[in-house]
Design a protein that fits this description.
Blueprint: E1 4-7, E2 10-13, H1 17-24, E3 27-28, H2 31-41, H3 46-49, E4 53-57, H4 59-67, E5 73-78, H5 86-102, E6 105-110, H6 112-118, H7 124-140, E7 148-152, H8 153-169, H9 173-180, H10 188-212, E8 221-226, H11 230-243, E9 249-253, H12 280-288, H13 298-304, H14 312-321, H15 325-336, H16 342-366
Parallel strand pairs: 5-6, 5-8, 6-7, 8-9
Antiparallel strand pairs: 1-2, 3-4, 4-9
Helix pairs in contact: 2-4, 6-7, 7-16, 8-10, 10-11, 12-16, 14-16
This protein binds tryptophan.
Tryptophan (TRP) binds at residues 8, 75-79, 109, 111, 114, 197, 223, 225, 229.
C-alpha cells in the first residue's frame, strides 16, 4: 500500500510520482516527448529538462494541433484560499513560457466558489478578495491582459453556468463519489463544483463557435496543473467527448517541497513556504532555517557530503531558482562532494529568493492599476 494521498483537497505523505502515474493512469512526460514539446515551442524550459513537469495526458495530440497551425488555448487556475506562495507560481511560470511560445490565449480560473464550499472557515467575501489579490501575482509574472482572461467563478458564472450544467447532466453521483471520495456528509455544492472547474476547458470552443458562426468549431486546450488536479479533468475528459468538445490535454507538475522537509508546502504552516507577500527578511529567515540534506556536523558533511535529493534548498534551486543547467549541476556536485556546506547553500538561495521577491512585489503593486483589464465576465 502506498503511504501517501494525493487528491484535489489533500496532499499527504511522501509522494511517489511513478506510483501516481500508475494510479491515475497518466503518461510520463520525458525523453522524446519533452524534446518534442521544446522543439514545437521553439525553445526548451528548465522545468521540462528537469522533469518538474513529469506527466501528461494527450500532449502529442495537442502538439499535432499546434504544429498544424491550428488555434489552441491554455487553461489553468487557482483556488483562492489565501496568499500565493512559490508552489503556486511554479505552474504559472511554465504556463507563461507556453503562452509566449504558442502565442495563444490563457483562460485562468479563480475558484472562489470552490474555496468557499470546501473551507469551513472562509466566507464568500474572503475568497473573492483573495481571488482579486492572487490575480496580481499573474500580472506580476508578465501575463498580458489582451491574451489572458481571468475568470472569477462567482463573477463570471453567467458564462460558465450553461457549460457546467452540460457537464453536470452527464455526471452521475456514483462517478463523482468514485473519483473524489464524497460521502453522505459532503455538502452538495462540492459535488457540483467539478462541473464548474470543467467549464473553462470547453469555453474556448464555445467562444470560437460564437465568433465564427461555425457550429462545430473546436479549439484544442492544454491544461498545465499540479498533479492533484488531475481527477477533475479525468471527469472533464470523459464528458467533453459526449458533449462534442475535444478532450483537454494536460501536463502535470510535481509539488514544490516544503521548506521544512516533506512533500508539499502547506498553507497551515507559514514557515513551510514562501509567500509572494513575505518581506524579503521573512523569506530569508525561512530559507536560513530550511530542512537540508546536510549531516550532523560540519566535519561529517565535509567528509561524507550532503544529499541533494532530500534537501529542500537544493530542490528550490532545481525546481525554481537556478534555471542555468551548468550552474545547477556544479552546485549539486559540490554539495554532494562536501565542498559546499548548508550555510553557504542557504545564503545562495536566500539571495535569489530576496532578489526575486523585491522585483515581483514591485510589479505586483504596479499591477493594481491595470488588474481590472484581466477580469473576464463574458
Ligand atoms: N481547483 C484548483 C485549486 O484548488 C483551481 C483550479 C481551477 C485549477 N481550474 C484549474 C488549477 C485548472 C489548475 C488548472 O487550486
Amino acid at each position: 500500500m502506498a503511504d501517501f494521498v494525493v487528491t484535489p483537497w489533500e496532499v499527504r505523505g511522501s509522494v511517489d510520482y511513478d506510483e501516481l502515474v500508475r494510479q491515475f493512469g497518466t503518461q510520463r512526460l520525458d525523453g522524446g516527448l519533452a524534446e518534442r514539446l521544446a522543439r514545437t515551442a521553439g525553445e526548451s524550459h528548465f522545468m521540462l529538462r528537469r522533469n518538474v513537469f513529469f506527466s501528461h495526458r494527450d500532449l502529442p495530440q495537442f502538439l499535432d494541433a499546434v504544429e498544424r497551425g491550428r488555434k489552441v488555448a491554455l487553461y489553468t487556475g487557482r483556488g483562492p484560499s489565501g496568499s500565493t506562495h512559490l508552489g503556486h507560481l511554479m505552474p504559472w511560470v511554465f504556463t507563461k513560457y507556453l503562452q509566449d511560445a504558442f502565442g495563444c490565449e490563457l483562460y485562468f480560473q479563480m475558484t472562489d466558489d470552490e474555496k468557499y464550499l470546501f473551507k469551513e472557515n472562509l466566507t464568500r467575501e474572503e475568497t473573492l478578495a483573495y481571488a482579486r489579490e492572487n490575480a496580481l501575482d499573474l500580472a506580476a509574472l508578465g501575463f498580458k491582459p489582451d491574451k489572458t482572461k481571468i475568470i472569477i467563478d462567482t463573477q463570471a458564472i453567467k458564462r460558465l453556468y450553461p457549460l457546467a450544467l452540460d457537464v453536470a447532466k452527464k455526471t452521475t453521483l456514483s462517478t463523482a463519489r468514485a473519483i473524489f471520495g464524497f460521502d453522505n456528509s459532503t455538502n452538495i455544492g462540492s459535488v457540483f463544483f467539478t462541473s464548474v472547474q470543467s467549464a473553462p476547458a470547453l469555453l474556448p470552443s464555445v467562444l470560437e463557435r460564437e465568433k465564427t458562426g461555425k457550429k462545430n468549431a473546436v479549439v484544442p486546450v492544454l491544461i498545465p496543473c499540479a498533479i492533484d488536479q488531475d481527477p477533475h479533468f479525468r471527469l472533464t475528459r470523459d464528458v467533453s467527448d459526449k458533449l462534442g468538445y475535444p478532450k483537454p490535454a494536460l501536463v502535470h507538475t510535481r509539488f514544490l517541497p516544503s521548506l521544512r522537509g516533506g512533500e508539499k508546502m502547506s498553507a497551515s504552516d507559514a514557515e513551510s513556504s514562501i509567500y509572494t507577500t513575505d518581506t524579503p527578511e521573512d523569506a530569508e529567515r525561512k530559507v536560513m532555517r530550511a530542512f537540508t540534506g546536510g549531516r550532523a556536523t560540519v566535519e561529517e558533511q565535509r567528509r561524507l557530503g550532503g544529499d541533494p535529493e532530500v534537501c529542500s534548498v537544493c530542490n528550490y534551486l532545481k525546481m525554481f531558482f537556478e534555471p542555468d543547467d551548468a550552474k545547477l549541476a556544479e552546485r549539486l556536485r559540490a554539495y554532494r562532494a562536501g565542498e559546499i556546506l548548508d550555510g553557504e547553500n542557504k545564503q545562495y538561495l536566500a539571495g535569489k529568493v530576496t532578489a526575486f521577491l523585491k522585483e515581483h512585489q514591485r510589479k505586483r503593486e504596479q499591477a493594481r492599476k491595470t488588474i481590472d483589464k484581466f477580469f473576464w465576465e463574458g
